[in-house]
Description:
By secondary structure, the chain is of the alpha+beta class. It contains four helices and nine strands.
Amino acid sequence: xxxxxxxxxxxxxxxxxxxxxxxxxxxxxxxxxxxxxxxxxxxxxxxxxxxxxxxxxxxxxxxxxxxxxxxxxxxxxxxxxxxxxxxxxxxxxxxxxxxxxxxxxxxxxxxxxxxxxxxxxxxxxxxxxxxxxxxxxxxxxxxxxxxxxxxxxxxxxxxxxxxxxxxxxxxxxxxxxxxxxxxxxxxxxxxxxxxxxxx
Length: 199
């Protein structure tokens, strides 16, 4: 019986078959403050985190997905002067190679999660010269911090990351944003410091 690796190489030689699409699980890490009773109620304003371009189409796609999830949790979205503020940042990296990330910390309590390690690992054969260039990897990361009126401490923080290839169903931001926002708030508020993967 021929091995899958042999068959894959034969397919590339005979037909120039395209590389398969890849979509990773969404990796989520969350931090919950010691006063979670205020979460999931009242009014909330969604704003861009410092350094984010609130005027960009990309940001607005993800911010809208987060607004929908917050409404489902019981919040009422307001344009300003909310009881709470959801600060949102979005990062998208497109390239043929995996981006090397440093460990990141979520939460003032020191809850740490490492992202990007091993995501999208495939078989150890380069078929690029046989079937054309591989599809680009699209690595996305969104971060949301819910703050009270005083804007000094975070009541809740969450970070979600995922990888998809440019030939997958999640190549477009709209599809990816909905999937990531849904995973980020699944089981809200979640267990503080825990990292989960959502298919």
